[in-house]
Design goal:
mainly alpha
């Protein structure tokens, strides 16, 4: 990722964080996704390793 692309990513993330209009929010997300795909840094969740066989302990604190 180039310096310019990283700067654009930071600007998009800041704008996404503060956006209140749902349509503009989605448009900004699409822009971010396009940028990540162009740079090859977009996560492909379909290829993420599964944690089969690992036991996950869920605890709820402060509910009593």
């Amino acid at each position: 990722m180039t310096t310019e692309q990283r700067a654009l990513m930071n600007v998009l993330c800041e704008r996404i964080q503060g956006e209140q209009d749902p349509k503009r929010f989605l448009a900004l997300l699409e822009d971010l996704n396009e940028l990540l795909e162009k740079t090859g840094t977009h996560p492909d969740w379909r290829k993420a390793p599964l944690s089969i066989g690992k036991k996950v302990e869920w605890t709820f604190r402060g509910l009593g």
